[in-house]
Please model this.
Amino acid sequence: MNIEYLLPKDVCVQSFVERYLILNSKDKLTSYTCYPNTNHCLGVIRNHAINWCPENSSKNKIELIANSKPTHYTTGIYNKPMEFIINGAYKEICIDIKPLGLSLFGINNEKSSIVEVEPLNHINQDLVKNLYELVHNLDSMNSLELITALDSILRNAIKVEISHEIEYLKSKGPSTIQELQQILYMSNRSLYRFFTRKLKLTPYKFLEIMRLQNCIKDVINSKDLKSVYYEYGFTDASHFNKFIKKYTHLSPTSLKADLSLYDDLVLKK
Model:
């Protein structure tokens, strides 16, 4: 069994993935052992079926039988060596997932058993489909091409995941750093790392832009400007005007006078 360890090069992907493992064997019968791991894994296999019986899980043995279709599996955190016994030539892409990446792949940290096999309806199906296509082309790619392809697949998935998380945060309406911490169950340090790596914004800047967007909506909905700036914690019109102009280059009254301007706004980071 030939096992190649590859590291993601994309900075954003590095926040979600520890490493890629490419497994390749031409033997009719082979085996390999996975040792205890503190991360979850997603494995995508070309032309093999997995024979795994949960009632025999104490043996920590998984048999892979040659098949005509690709398959995938996940592993949770386990504390005993796990043996994979493989019948037939074998190719696999295994992704070692950091805790921050669990939601990206659709893995529930609390519910994942030691091994889960298909059907895995909770796993990101678009992501798995792209990985299926990639595992079929392993023979024609070198290590650098593989890293580039895997990084690209995951980066696109991350963009979708981030948009969902932003909408979730907006729906909760946080206005302070402490509320963000409570929603995301993160320490102040983890919160800062999460926002700067994912969104290229500090948590404070994210809250400020959320505040701005809400202010603009209320301004253009013809609410009294004085009531708007009081509602959002501004002590007077001067501070409110500076805040709006900082990002939009327009005064609140200009926004209110011509609603069409709102569609053309470009928020500065």
About this structure: Residues 2-160 form a domain with the Jelly Rolls fold (CATH 2.60.120).
